[in-house]
Specification:
single chain; two-stranded parallel ribbon; Rossmann fold; 8 strands; alpha/beta; 2 domains; 38% helix
């Protein structure tokens, strides 16, 4: 878990200080959920998370989100945050989905930051909104010195990643483990034990 957590910590570093900031996380798979944990550990005062699956949104609540929105069933709930030029200070976009990024941009307040973690295809974005709201767009990929910090935070139990661990399977059950890991309705992170 240290490697993906280091990615989330690197994204938080790229965002700047999160002390008392309102954070939006779009996409709550493993990386988005780890971004929630990292944002909370770095002082975010409020975290709202969105996804299209209730199963992962339940995990988002367990790891520190204050509120969750199923954007497939209730897209208007995120639109409410777009009122008065936006609400959030930082968006961690972990889905790689164009609609998630666009709806997040609308909910960002002026002079906020969007950190793109999720990989997807080429997307278009509303350049005028980015310019007029003075939104900073930052990409993040992998990690650098954050790996040591991730290991330290995990070892000292300063963060609890256990809600994200679906199961640990012996190597002789590797095929079953990969089947479970590939089913987003059943799993978040699956590990093999040697």
């Amino acid at each position: 878990m240290a490697e993906p957590f280091a990615m989330a910590l690197h994204a938080v570093k790229r965002s700047g200080s999160l002390a008392n900031k309102r954070v939006l996380v779009t996409g709550c798979g493993p990386i988005g959920a780890l971004a929630i944990i990292a944002a909370r550990a770095h002082g975010a005062s409020e975290i709202v998370a969105t996804d299209v699956m209730d199963e992962v949104l339940k995990k988002a609540l367990k790891v520190g989100a204050d509120r969750v929105i199923n954007s497939a069933e209730n897209p208007e709930r995120l639109s409410d945050y777009a009122a008065n030029k936006g609400y959030f200070d930082v968006q961690f976009e972990a889905s790689g989905n164009e609609r998630a990024m666009l709806s997040g941009l609308e909910a960002l307040r002026p002079q906020s930051t969007l950190v793109q973690l999720g990989l997807g295809g080429d997307i278009s974005f509303p350049q005028n909104m980015v310019v007029t709201k003075e939104i900073e767009l930052k990409g993040t990929f992998r990690f650098h010195e954050e790996f040591g910090l991730a290991v330290d935070l995990i070892n000292r139990r300063r963060v609890d990643l256990s809600p994200l661990l679906t199961g640990v399977y012996p190597i002789d059950e590797a095929v079953r483990a990969f089947d479970i890991a590939g089913d987003r309705t059943q799993s978040m992170k699956v590990q093999l034990a040697f």
